[in-house]
Amino acid sequence: MLFPTVTFAIFFAIVLPLNWLLMPQGRRWRVFIIAASYFFYGYWNWRFTALLAVVTVWNQFWGRAIHRASGDPPRRLALAIAIAGDLGVLAYFKYYDFFLLSTKNLLGDFGMHFNPTFLAITLPVGVSFFTFQSMSYVIDIYRKQLLPVRFLDFAVYVCFFPHLVAGPIVRASEFLPQLRERKDPRRIDASRAFFLIMAGLFKKMVLADFLSTHIVEPVFGVPAQHSALEALVGVYGFAVQIYCDFSGYTDIAIGLALLLGFRFPQNFDAPYTAVSIQDFWRRWHMTLSRWLRDYLYIPLGGNRGTTLQTYRNLMLTMLLGGLWHGARWTFVMWGGLHGAYLVYEHHRGERSRAGSLPFGAATPRSRFWQRVVTFHLVCLAWVFFRAETFNDALTLIGRLFSGWSHGSPLVTPAVLLAIAVGIGMQYIPRITIERAEEAFSRLKPAMMGLTLGVGLLCIDALGPVGVSNFIYFAF
Amino acid sequence: MQTEPRPDQTDRDQRPRRHVMAAGHAVLVIFVAFAVGMLLNADTMMRTAENLPLGSSKRSISVSVMRPIKWVSDHLGITEPRTLLDRALGKRQKQVKDPFSAFRNPSATPPTVPHPGTTTKATAPNPPTEFVTRFHPSTQRPLRVYAAGDSLSFEYGLAMGRLAAADPTIEMEGSIDYHVATGLSRPDFFNWPLQLDAQMKARKPDVVVYMVGSNDDQSLASPDGHTYAPYTPGWKYEYSRRAAAVMDQVIHSGRTIIWIGCPIIKNAARSHGYQLINALVRTQADARRDAYFVDPYPMFQDKHGNFEQYLPDAAGHLVKMRADDGIHLERAGGDLLANATAHLLKRIYPPVAK
Asked: Inter-axis angle of helices B153-166 and B331-348, to 10 degrees?
């Protein structure tokens, strides 16, 4: 079930009142929200609800086993089994066919025959997100930062529909305590929730889908056919599209959770205002970068070893972060580029601290150029992320340096406006947004509903016909 | 990788405080928003409901729900803002009763269509051997191609673009003009004759490559008001008439049309229907000069005639040709089909010898 559809609107209009009516009856509420979430998930493909159930039972079982085990070796063994199971699910659904295909073709090159049976099924939506959340639960139990919770609580945590299919990746330690809180149905931060939902719909349906159809798909589909200007605007277009698509989804998810009485962590914080790549990763897909930091980078040694070890850890984390997105070498390249950027920044930072590089105070002008450079480095990496093959990525980059004399019919004022809005909205001061939210919150419910209804009209009219999938549903 | 507090976040006391709301009020807001949204969008929502497959229960329920809402909206006169917005954004096509006769040249030979009751074999006739060569493309005067179709045509259109980028005698006129969930069955949802007319005028191609059909396995309503269930004699007649009309529309504008049929899909029952659609379209193409049919159906079959997702490419490496949904094409699948089209194009329009 996609958020921006009438089907979901009907589903949510039923779930919301029942959620608050059943909230005082803890057990019944849990059963209800699990049933609603499984219905939401099963609407795509009901068979995958079994996968969701298996992942839930598996991690709860091993979470408890880790907690009960005495001594480190059995605890470590239980953790290893739990993680192997989770990674096995990911590997099976995301990388199995890719691995078999590569093996078959490699053996074929040496004259050996291998006839594998491919899975040939659509990737279960959200599998990367709910396995990562479940892994955080068992790892936190292993680290003694969390106690196992009741099965129903854990099941709610894994399947809670606002975050189920594309995050944000909510930690068990962030969500589970909220299940024990007594929620006051008279005090919901509904105006912020509505504000976020409308902002998310606007980003997704008006900006992301428009840019996708009008510039990104044609340019990345056939890079050699387009002029330098179209290639450049296509890359900017994709940078805005993926931001609006993913942060739009996250805004809607956070808004829905707020209406149901839950707080989710922030996932984006104006990423294209970043002044460095390190800063970018503090603002982009924040819940994934936190996850990778706490469950991969730090266990690898973080920055506690030698400089070279730190660089290795950074590179490994970013390469695996790239691979998390799917079985494609272009994703690995995207991760590798970000890893290289981070290593370079780390190296430069160390030289500055050692005094071998001049250290100037940040001025508005220097910050402006830092932002410009960071944005373009991020865009360069997006080329590999979006391109289907290395060849396409290199062709597209090559077009930037040739073909300036060609016509650019795809670069329309509407496309440029959408890109400008997508980037410009990240520079709106937070205080301005909060003031707008505060003014909106003072409206009477009927007036608020009327405003939202008119907003829905505008979004639906400005967006293209139909709703396309969110990009991160594929990861 | 944690976010640091921003300067404008530090002084929390100065930040505006939002008013909180009771859950009941939040539910009320949602219902008011839906009601207002539905009333303002009633016209569009009614059209969306009507565009669901003819005869389906989902369509009946949706239309029944929307009818009173549209009645209220019409009487309040509040559908106008949406209508104006749609017109301003070019989102509304002109509705005509029978778009498939709108662009027919009155002096043209009537389309060859099998009459109701005619049985159509789902086997492919021989490929055409005679070609109508209008000119010999060269690097100075390349063959201008416009590609259009439904969602299945997307990867194919991109592949045609890649092919043209590597061949200076072929030039794609703009990007692939694809429209999701469209076909010949529902001109009330998407009017292809109107779209082709506008795009042919704007892009001025020599050749139109057109790929629809995969959404057409649904009931058809004829101009006289009859609704025909898929693959009944009346349905075959009406579908053939529409395919013929589109071919004639392109041919009478002085262009060549290459019609790409439906490829086999994972669902065997639907695939069987696609074979029939292909046979109907091929019959129309065979009856016309300047109309050609490319049959992608066998290109994605295994040796037993079943759907195959992975097939060898030109280099002999196994590649993923079809998407995991068992319907759409992957990049390699698009390339395979584009190469077959290019092969046909070279025979119809042999380039100037170097």
From this structure: 60
How many C-beta atoms surround the C-beta of residue A297 within 10 A? Answer: 22
Pair (A73, A170) in one structural domain:
yes
Q: Are A362 and A277 members of one domain?
A: yes
Peptide bond into A74 cis (omega under 30): no
Residue finishing a domain among A123, A152, A180: A180
- Residue A310 structural domain: 190-470
Which value does ipTM take for this structure? 0.79
Q: Which residues of B touch A15 (CB under 8 A)?
A: none
Of the residues B4, B15, B18, B72, the best mutation for testing chain A's interface (the one with the most A CB atoms within 10 Å of its CB) is B18
- Asked if B180 and A464 touch (Cβ cutoff 8 Å), the reply is no
Q: Is B269 on the interface with A (CB under 8 A)?
A: no
**Which residues in chain B have their CB less than 8 angstroms from residue A29's CB?**
none
Residues A81, A58 share a domain: yes
**What is the overall mean pLDDT for chain B?**
85
Examine residue A86 and state whether it is found in any structural domain, yes or no.
Answer: yes
Backbone angles phi, psi at B200, to 5 degrees: -65, -35
pTM as predicted: 0.85
Query: B28 CB contacts (<8 Å, ≥6 apart)?
Result: A445, A446, A449
**Contact flag B8-A430 (C-beta cutoff 8 Å):** yes
Chain B residues with CB under 8 Å of A457 CB are 37, 40-41, 81-82, 85
* CATH superfamily of domain region B99-348: SGNH hydrolase (3.40.50.1110)
pLDDT single digits (tens) B271-310: 999 999 999 999 999 999 899 999 999 999 998 999 999 9
The encoded tokens of residue B46 equal 């009614």
Highest averaged pLDDT of the listed ranges A116-130, A326-340, A395-409: A326-340
Q: What is the pLDDT of residues B255-280, one digit of tens each?
A: 999 999 999 999 999 999 999 999 99
Ranges in chain B, pLDDT < 70 = 1-15, 104-130, 132, 353-354
Domain termination site, one of A180, A210, A240: A180
For residue A292, the chain B residue with the least C-alpha distance is: B1
> What residues of A act catalytically?
325
Asked whether residue A299 falls in the same domain as residue A217, the answer is yes
Q: Where are the domains of chain B?
A: 21-88, 99-348
